From TrEMBL:
Entry keywords, A to Z: Oxidoreductase
Protein name: Pyridoxamine 5'-phosphate oxidase family protein
Keyword Ribonucleoprotein carried by entry: no
Transmembrane segments: none
Classification via SUPFAM superfamilies: FMN-binding split barrel (SSF50475)
Ranges where the Pyridoxamine 5'-phosphate oxidase N-terminal domain occurs: 16-138
Keyword field contains Heme: no
InterPro entries (alphabetical): F420H2_bilvrd_red/Heme_oxyg, Pyridox_Oxase_N, Split_barrel_FMN-bd
Amino acid sequence: MPIERSATPIDTTRMTAVTRQLLDASTLCSIASVSANGQPHINTAYFAWDGSLNVVWMSEREAQHSQNVRTNGAVAIAVYDSSQVWRGPNRGIQLFGSADELEGEAVREAKAIYGRRFDAFAEKDFGSYCFYRCRLQRLKLFDEQMLGDATFVTARVSSNGELAWERTEVYRVM
């Protein structure tokens, strides 16, 4: 399956709209992290996001992925609707960035972001759970209705959530 690269940039407004739609499409994500000794780990979590495209989630502090974030903040996150069927049209988003365990005012901000997405959140006591935030550096969009069949668009993400097109790849079936 050859991969064709397009030299034509995707409009920032269009990329931003697709990104926001994809982040809103599912409340669950898969978070990949790496342990101190280089072992990969993946975890599924409910997530929320803010206007700067920071992703927040909460988790038990001693869970493997939480320990991984404290020792090596590099994470990759996948968001997609698992009820999609093969031969689509399909969609999903891959997020790449640096995560950290939150403290102080950042926890209050994360709770507000999380509470806006999950109404029942405020009613629960999550005890030893902590909040984590991923500051995105790069993302990869996949939305066949909006971008074309088997088309993946990669963009850099600035600290304020602005996207800058990096490349478009189209996977061709032989």
